[in-house]
Amino acid sequence: MNRTEERLRAATRAAARTVPDGSAPPLRLPAGPPPAPARYRPPRSGWRRAIAPLAAAAAVTAVVGVSVAVTHLHGRPAGTTAPAAALASVPPYVVYLEGLPYAPNRAVVRSSVTGRVIAAIAPPRPYRMFDMVSAIGAGDRQFVLMAQRFRKVTGPGGPANQLFDNRTPGAFFTLTVSRDGTSARLAALPAGRSGHAVRAAHAQDVFAVTGSPDGRKLALGMHDAGRSWIRVATLASGASRTWRWAAPGWVGEDKPEWQPLSWRDDSRTLAFQAHTGLSGGGPLEIGLLDTDGPGRTLAAARVVLRIAGVHDRVELMNVLLTGDGREIIASVQTVASSPVAPQATETSVRVYSARTGRLLRVLDRRLITGPAVSNGEVWGNVLWVSRTGSSMVLLDPARHAAHQRTGWPVLGVLTGSTFTPMPFATPLAWEYAW
Amino acid sequence: MAAAVTGLYQGHAVGLIRLAVVMLGDRPAAEDVVQEAFAGLYRRWAKLTDPGKALPYLRSATINGCRNELRRRVRARRRPPEPVTDAASAEFAALVGEEHREVLAALRRLPGRQREALVLRFYLDLTEPEIATAMGISPGTVKSTTARGLAALGRLLQENDR
After folding, report:
1. Closest residue in B to A344 (Cα–Cα)
2. Which CATH number characterizes residue B127's domain?
3. Do B22 and A371 touch (CB under 8 A)?
């Protein structure tokens, strides 16, 4: 344990000792039986009308456990019937990782339209866990996955570290869905093609993997010992280039369902996120890196967007560049300033110009009240966006009544103001790719 | 139902108040957060299929309550100070002692997610999977968030030492 850890451990324990044993005040429970679960109400348009039900809800404190009150601030209520066109606007296959954290897992391939499971594939031994998954190529049938060993190791650091092999390099695999869509095959990415850049990476040091639309490049976001960088490997030759982040802060993000890197259709321009400032608490920057251009640091990238207030008032989830390179799609949570719902969070999808950074439109604004207990950080997270930004996939646990029964996240397609739930949900999925 | 929740309160309230005090730095606010966490558990008790999940729920609710309270304070900075909170904070600082105050102050300068991960790891000694569950984030995020939080905390403390 280093000096900072020792001081932190001692200070937090000293703070805790200010609360003596047996000093908790009496519990004050609400009078009467618990209220019935809050029911989802179809939203009304406009802010004032939208918060009216919340005022009533606040008066009776009828927010129930993990369920939350959700209302749209603008636009029509999200639809719940499934127009086939919305589902068909998404690539036909999704791959996600399924399993408990830090346990052996598997990659599941499903049809986006029917939800049918096409394959469920565990990593080949000695690898036990997949860590990352990304689509690669424009054919909508190929994915790349990073895997690592999982074996019991001894040493300090607590039970989690003892179970987690964090030294052995990971390995990359391709997963290809058959042309008839009835099966999928996993194959090792040949080391000769991927080169040192891919072979040497351990999953612990990799925070993003993104395959290029032309299928020829693999972009890795990496960090180690407080430094971070982006590496792009050309699969055919094994050659790679590295761009380091040389300013305070880091590249990447600490978000669930990571998507900190995204390619433009030209397979040349790579969008990335950077948390600036001493502790990463400064403005979040979105940069566009020309991977064929000069430079060895990310200062070579063009910063197109700065978003202030991250961590304090604004939480950004995924920020994706559309394939045509014209727009940046950001899923955003902000502290809402509603007088009747002081703990409300507003979620929205913001669309910015990738050329000027100007905010073009705001989609799917919703006000969420109540304790954000159940994966609150993934509300409204954008996992995939179409080439022009007209269609996107959201991960949204609060969207659907089914969630309030199961606690399972709901995936759906947002087209305009219509949300179309996808025909499957699973409680143990993380890292989705289309 | 009320008896079950009260029993849990008797067993875990002090521990959760301590967790909230570490996060917030003042006891009255910490007690409010924990009260609200238990009230939330009471309201959803009928939906709780596994009583073993009550403590993880309470822990998550406490963390989220602290997050909301800290956000509320950010907004309140634009308004006149709240004397009760300030007094409580001053009392807390006096109790903690000089040598630890600097560390706690630096901890509170970190982004919320880093602060939460560090407190769960180094105060509660939770494992990474437990932290992932408590914070509602993916497992890979815990490791990177903790590492970045520690690095940032170290830099902040070095800054103060100069």
Report:
1. B68
2. 1.10.10.10
3. no
